[in-house]
Amino acid sequence: MDLVGSLGRDPPDRESLPRWAAPLPKTLEDIAYRFVWVIVAINLAGTAFGFWYYRFQFGRHPVEMWPFIPDSPLATLFIALALASWAVGRSSDTLATLAFFGNIKLGLWTPYVLVAFSPGFLANSGPAMYAFLFVSHLAMVVQAFVLHRMTDFPVKAVVIATTWYTVDLLMDYFVPLVGDVTHTSVPYAGSTPWFTTTVLQVAAAGAVTLTVIPLFLALGTRVATLRARDAPENPAR
Questions:
Q1: Which among 36, 106, 192, 212 could bridge 8 via Cys, Cβ 3.0 to 4.6 Å?
Q2: Which residues cross the membrane (predicted)?
Q3: pTM of the predicted model, to two decimals?
């Protein structure tokens, strides 16, 4: 039985990129593409769990605000769709870029708030769920760094992803169109004093910063990719 043929495809070419743009070993990237349907299935399972996890928040918000509530599940759905599209020969730069933004932003924001508000999370969820959420979200960051093999992050796709995650940021923390803000629940009221500020401001500060970081990474990776292609020799690392 051809496992690569049934579970994935031979990986796309790998550009010679700086370590910050392609931090994963080539062997690990190759495995991800050769077993891409396994990764798609894992992300779809994570998406389903995520929607279940947000079930109470859905009930507290009007239907028109629902797209802005399940941030992490949408990020894992984006990467599942991006990888599946590549696997069937219909790669989408837009899906890949949305997935890159979402998996880096939410993959880092969740561990950030888990650490910042650890007493409340541990009291509410227990150590097992705490550890699962922490590790699974860091894994989202890892998988985001295989996407440079299937997209060079064209400007149009970056604009779309930046627009979506900026609007989502506004809905989550600042100016919801209807009702209340839609950010992921944390175990303290937003107005609770925390260090020199409040819980809401600590969470929002992380979200703002982590919206900017993938933007710079995507554009930086695009520049590095175009330079590598223009170089006289481009040996794959």
A1: 36
A2: 35-54, 66-88, 100-122, 128-146, 158-179, 199-219
A3: 0.94
